[in-house]
Amino acid sequence: MNIVVCVKYVPDATADRQFESDNTVDRVGVDGLLSELDEYAVEQALQLKEKAGDDTEVTALCVGPEKAVDAVRKALQMGADKGVLVSDEAVAGSDAVATSLVLAKAVEKLGSEKQVDLVVCGMASTDGSMSVVPAMLAERLDLPQVTFASVIETQGDQVRVKRDGDTATEVIGGTMPLVLSVTDQSGEARYPSFKGIMAAKKKPLDTWALSDLGVDAGEVGLDAAWSEVLETAARPPRTAGEIVKDEDGSGATALAEFLASKKFI
Amino acid sequence: MSEVLVLVDHVDGTVRKPTLELLTLARQLGEPSAVFIGSADQANAAAERLKAYGAEKVYAVDDAQTKGYLVAPKAEVLAQLAEKTSPAAIFIVSGYEGKEIAGRLAIKLGSGLITDAVDLAVDGGAPVFTQSVFAGNYTVTSKVKQGTPIATFKPNSAAPEEAAGAGTVEPFAATISDSAKKAQIVASQPRKATGRPELTEAAIVVSGGRGTGGNFEPIEGLADALGAAVGASRAAVDSGWMPHTFQVGQTGKTVSPQLYVANGISGAIQHRAGMQTSKTIVAVNKDEEAPIFELVDFGVVGDLHTVLPAATEEINKRKG
Ligand SMILES: Cc1cc2nc3c(=O)[nH]c(=O)nc-3n(C[C@H](O)[C@H](O)[C@H](O)COP(=O)(O)OP(=O)(O)OC[C@H]3O[C@@H](n4cnc5c(N)ncnc54)[C@H](O)[C@@H]3O)c2cc1C
Ligand SMILES: Nc1ncnc2c1ncn2[C@@H]1O[C@H](COP(=O)(O)O)[C@@H](O)[C@H]1O
Q: How close are the terminal C-alpha atoms of chain A, in Å?
């Protein structure tokens, strides 16, 4: 099998995330890392490889700034076989529509010698949290999408997953090639081992520019984005609330009193 | 006035509340046209309700041939309706399915997409969307620069307001391609009704975390006294105490109720991401240093196992 796992480099959620003056996400001034939710995608890709036990190859693919190579490297340390970073000045400020275009072209290029059977994504990026790129990729590549999987089973080229939908729990099935996205319920992601970290240094890691993919710079980036952020404002800090210590049941009375004062009772 | 297409979110013909919110929002921009994808006999009953919230038209799309497939057929239906009607915008409820339909549709139509909007304004006839990002720490406004604006809105983005629309039912026959029928819904198990309000729609949510130690009785007791939905942190879900569908946060549900009561929940960034925009926040936690207290309007430092049952009793007494 030929598996591509899409990994995004995102600002650390526990750091102070912010915007640039052009209202794009600051991806350089803030510490970044492999989006935690994409670790689950890497994990599932590796488990599928281990299960197949053959010459299955896992390629970690990322679109992002130069620093984003860290995200690819982490995937290699976890066990991916090779990595590709698509990095190009022109990509900065791209929206999901443009990002999915670049990813789709890169998947096509990766499949030019040997068909890509599975494109594995996370359920959402931890910065944009749009949860749309996998569906967009499926649309662009004209592939079925089997998405938001919490349990993944394969048999030959058949894929079956459990999806906790909005109103029902479903079993979704499809035939490879397809786009799969996995949730954080799919199983803890492994940590890179010391051996894995050493081995990653020798694994192939390519950097591609847009020209390598035949994508026109005018199709991507901030100016070409199909949507535009007009204004950003930090949420006003919440005014300090009243905090009481419970002593001999006083907490319960105070709580009921507060709820009544706000007319919730 | 242009039409605004609103994809109806329903379960077996019963229209869910967020759709009524979208119809309400859509009226700011144009004439709401509801798009009902379901069985033909359900469409008429649904149309009555849609009409009461301002739908001028109800496009009824029979899903007999497509309901066994995931997402893609619905995107095709909307794309074809958009071709036909040149709408001012297309509104969809946020959720796994809604976002994915929107994603595919955006590519098909060559249109910009906004996800998880929480409010709408109109500027020079064009929609301006408000979103809450970075775990609710920032509010941004955005607009779509290309194509038909497509937006998904989170539940509770507006209060549904009744307004009589014409509600004319128009059957629409979409052509669904074979490639849209490649991801099959092999089995579907509808969620069991809890008898409590739906988590994302509830006006009040009472949640429990690791601090419950697995005993959710105090949480459920308070929830029932307040007529609230029950939520949980991921720690409570990972421990197997509550099903994943109850999880609030980045990888669970986003809630924005009038009142959120967090019990035995520390307030990690991923949990905040799902509840930070709640109007009033209350927490009960035995650790006064717990980060959740930074968010609260009212907090009790104490043991939830004693505070909650006593508060529940007091509330029930006051209700008489
Ligand atoms: C990628 C990713 C996604 C995530 N998504 C989510 C998500 O969607 N939702 C989510 O909730 N988390 C999510 N998390 C997990 C999150 O980081 C926290 O680990 C989790 O929210 C902690 O849950 P908790 O507050 O219940 O537990 P803890 O952090 O262990 O807090 C328990 C709290 O209970 C208090 N307590 C203990 N006993 C009592 C008592 N008797 N009475 C009162 N208080 C008591 C303690 O003081 C403590 O503050 C995610 C993490 C990652 C990495
Ligand atoms: N720039 C990117 N590079 C690689 N993968 C991405 C990128 N953006 C999104 N993805 C993939 O798409 C998933 C969903 O992203 P999103 O739609 O942005 O929430 C992520 O979990 C990744 O697997």
A: 59
